[in-house]
Design a protein that fits this description.
Layout lengths: L2 E2 L4 H6 L4 E2 L3 E6 L5 H14 L4 E5 L4 H10 L5 H5 L3 E5 H4 L33 E5 L10 H17 L3 E7 H6 L10 E10 L4 E11 L9 E6 L2 E4 L10
Parallel strand pairs: 3-7, 3-8, 4-5, 4-6, 6-7
Antiparallel strand pairs: 1-2, 8-9, 9-10, 10-11
Length: 240
């Protein structure tokens, strides 16, 4: 199976070379756990390799994302300016009142059906990140959510895309973790106190990644000015 780099050397090693190509991967975690940063690493590496990328941003402006990427040593702006990276401004649309369109924007929130997100992805796109897909799940029933996740994933697969769905922990739990059944693989990010060291640490756990041998343990990682640094010395148990 083709592998697409995560943009993080140690994570690529754990995943037999990277994310499974032309598949959808879910990344979940609490606020501050680093979800968006994993998306930035993925997009930066893909752009470096000449791939065409799309970021559907529902919680930040392109300017904020580009600034954050620069602070991590992952300057996406040249790729954004030359059109290799498209950043869809869905965040601004969430606060607008637009009626009478097929997307169904309403004053109380964004009610676009998930499969229509694929309309933001031009033919020939290689990599897609939806951050945060959780904002689309609030008003969906369990059956509707499963259908729409499956629909979007199917369309992106037909387009030949490798995609990351980034989802906040609250939406993930509120929807009974259903999204995990609709994707090819998933990564969970945790923030927990290390009682031995007396400090908070970030952990990564991979509960599911088809076609990939997995360790049952977690990995510790840090977010630095040079991006994500993951403990490459081995896996560990969550302390505490």
């Amino acid at each position: 199976m083709e592998r697409v780099s995560t943009g993080i050397k140690e994570l690529d090693s754990k995943l037999s070379g990277g994310y499974p190509g032309n598949r959808v991967i879910l990344i979940t975690g609490v606020a501050g756990s680093g979800k968006t940063i994993f998306g930035i690493h993925f997009l930066y590496r893909a752009c470096q390799e000449g791939k065409k990328c799309v970021l559907i941003a529902t919680e930040e402006t392109p300017e904020d994302i580009l600034y954050q990427a620069r602070m991590l040593g992952r300057d996406l702006e040249p790729y954004y300016e030359n059109g290799q990276l498209l950043i869809e401004r869905v965040f601004e649309s969430r606060s607008e009142r637009i009626e009478g369109t097929r997307y169904g924007f309403k004053s109380e929130g964004l009610e676009i059906e998930l499969p229509y997100l694929a309309d933001f992805v031009p033919e020939g796109t290689d990599c897609v990140v939806v951050d945060n897909i959780g904002v689309f799940t609030i008003r969906l029933s369990t059956r509707k959510l499963r259908d729409e996740f499956d629909g979007l994933s199917y369309i992106l697969k037909k387009k030949g895309c490798t995609a990351l769905y980034i989802m906040d922990e609250a939406s993930y739990n509120m929807t009974n973790q259903l999204a995990e059944y609709s994707v090819y693989g998933s990564i969970r990010l945790l923030v927990k106190e290390n009682t031995y060291l007396g400090k908070m640490e970030r952990y990564l756990y991979i509960p599911k990644m088809r076609s990939t041998p997995l360790s049952p343990y977690t990995s510790v990682f840090e977010i630095t000015s040079e991006g994500i640094k993951m403990d490459g010395s081995g896996d560990s148990e969550i302390i505490g």
